[in-house]
Amino acid sequence: MMTKNSYYLSGLFLLFFIWSCSGPSTNNAGSEEGSEMESASEEERASPLKTTSGEIGNKSITVQYGSPGIKGRAIWGDLVPYEEVWRTGANEATYITLEEEVLIEGQPLAPGKYSLFTIPRANDPWTVIFNSDWDLEHGHFQYDEEKDVLRVEVDPTWVNESQEWLSIDVVSDGLEVKWEKLVLPITIE
C-alpha cells in the first residue's frame, strides 16, 4: 500500500520524465524565433561586436572588437585612463588575425591571433601591444604583460570632428583606430 508521500514522489517523477522527454521544438517557427532572439541579444549589447577585414598588400588581416560609444562621456584620461593598459575596445579583448608574417611599425610579427591593447598617453606616443592571449573574455582585466609578443610606439592624431562609435579599420597602410577625436594609425606592411 502506497503512502501519501509515495504518490506525491511518483507524480513528481512522472512530470519530470514527461518534461525531459519533450525536448526542444524543431518546427520552423521555433527556429526563426530562436534566430530572432539571438539577433536581438547581439543588438542589445551596449558596445556592438564588430569584425573588419581586408588586405594590406596581399596579406589578409581580420580584427574583432567591441565598439563603445561616447554617450556624452569624457573619454581620454577619464573613461580610458592615460598611462594604463586599455583593451582598445569594449567587453572582451580586441583581437587581430594575421594570415602571414607582417611588419608592424617596422617590427616583425608572425602569423596568428593576437589581442590588441594600447597604453594611451596625453602628450606622448601611445604604446600598441600585441599579446599571445587573444581570447580574453574580460579584456584588460585578464591582461598578462608576460605574454606580450610585440610592443610599438605610435603617434596619435587629434582631429576636429568627433566620432561617436569606436572603429578599427583595415586601410591600405595598416590599421586605423578612431574614436572621439582620436585617429591612431598603426602601420602594417
From TrEMBL:
Signal sequence bounds: 1-29
Disordered as annotated region, ranges: 27-55
InterPro entries, A to Z: DUF2911
Entry keyword set: Signal
A Pfam entry, by short name: DUF2911
Domain of life: Bacteria
Protein name (Swiss-Prot/TrEMBL): DUF2911 domain-containing protein
UniProt lineage: Bacteria, Pseudomonadati, Bacteroidota, Cytophagia, Cytophagales
